[in-house]
Amino acid sequence: MKAICCLLFLSVFSIISLRSLSLSLNKAYTAAITRRHLGQAKLTDGFEINIDARLNFPNPRLKKAYYALQEWKKVILSDPEKMIKNWEGIDVCSYNGVFCAKAPDDPNSMTVAGIDLNHGDIAGHLVPHLGLLTDLSIFHINSNRFCGIIPDSFTKLTILHELDVSNNRFVGPFPNVVLKMPKLKYLDIRYNNFEGELPPQLFDKDLDAIFLNNNRFSSVIPENIGNSKASVIVLANNDFKGCIPKSIGQMTKLDEVIFADNELSGCLPDELGLLENITILDVSENNFVGTIPEGFGKLKGVEMIDIRKNELTGTVLEGICTLPKLLNFTFSDNYFNQLEPKCEKPVRPELVMDYRENCLPKKPDQKSEKKCEPVVNREIDCESVGCKSQVDSDEESKKKKPPKKPTPVPKPKPPPVPTPAKPKPPPVPAPAKPKPPPVPTPAKPKPPPVQSPPPPVFSPPPPTQSPPPPPVPSPPPFDDIVLPPEVGYSYPSPPPPIFPGY
């Protein structure tokens, strides 16, 4: 009986063992078949490429490009213009917006050298797999609906020459990946939602064009801005504070600089007069105080100066009004109270000036005397309102500014007011003259309300100032990409600035 039971047990055990062995063999066989059809290659970048082994690619570069672009295609949520509709098959060089050229280190191999999906209204995000496109020289995706952040894998794009992700929905701090792109010359991240501080290392890079406007940056402008070799810098429409560092005078190659519509303060630095090659200078819509630096009269190549909507005072100098190439000089909505003779009637008829909303006697469209008097009579000590390494809060600024008294004058002055925000002085013995004492606060955070808010429309505007409205213009056709080992693709001139409001 025991023998029969043992026999039955061994039979059942053998059946179970054989069945398990069969299942294991089936799994192994299936895996072997799968491996035959899927080529697997682990890359040093941390990606594992799974591609049908039956697909034959001309070279490994195009194989990686195929994998990266197909992974990107998977996260495209909307493509209303059908820009990536033909992203099928192994011929990635035929994909819309993808451009191939001979590899810079191997003229016998074709590779993906550029991507241009501008103005596609595409919705999605960038995938880390794009870091596999290590031969990219140009990456243009402006005027779409890409969101999220710039992947860290973009640090692998070591020969990238142009990065244009403008007019999208990217977020987060400044994309520090661009600081690790050694060949980058053209950086355009405007019209996004980047925020926070601007890294000083940006101005140590060998960039030719820096477009950061229309984001949410809120730091001071780094003191080393003068180290930059850029010809165009646009920081407009952010929330930069503090004032313009004096090192800007070192930027002798600077052609256009736009600081408009921020929270910058202090006096305009005299070093702006050292920008001998500048053609466009825009510091409008900030909180600058004091007078126009005399150095502005040395800007022999400048074509447009815009200083409107600040708290500048004093005299408009004829040295500016007689600059040989100046076509547009806008100083409206300030507190200037005098024009030198050649500014009263410009000697060059093509010069367009806007002097509205100032305190100029016998001129139309000026501020009321009530608004003008407290500011025009205010004495400014530029040393006390100069650039600081850190931006004080509003409360700290109010506490620190009153002890910085202006240069003493013969007339007696009342003691410092304990609450600077109040325009009304405390009761003190009246000075010799009945005229009310000057307001001790060196600078108010904001100018008084303006009755005429819209900026002027000039006729005719100078040709160089015609603003291309966003979105950012597409680059020229990318028919023949040449990738020299040292400089990469020769990128087009940066787009002209947008006036007013970038």
From TrEMBL:
Chief location of this protein within or outside the cell: membrane
Intracellular or extracellular location(s): Membrane; Secreted, Cell wall
Domain called Leucine-rich repeat-containing N-terminal plant-type: residue spans: 68-100
Gene3D superfamilies assigned to the protein according to its UniProt record, in alphabetical order: Ribonuclease Inhibitor (3.80.10.10)
Coiled coil: none
A GO biological process held by the record: cell wall organization
Keywords recorded for this protein, A-Z: Cell wall, Cell wall biogenesis/degradation, Glycoprotein, Hydroxylation, Leucine-rich repeat, Membrane, Repeat, Secreted, Signal
GO cellular component: membrane
InterPro entries cross-referenced by the UniProt entry: Leu-rich_rpt (IPR001611), LRR_dom_sf (IPR032675), LRR_extensin-like_regulator (IPR051582), LRR_N_plant-typ (IPR013210)
Transmembrane segments: none
Name of the protein: Cell wall hydroxyproline-rich glycoprotein
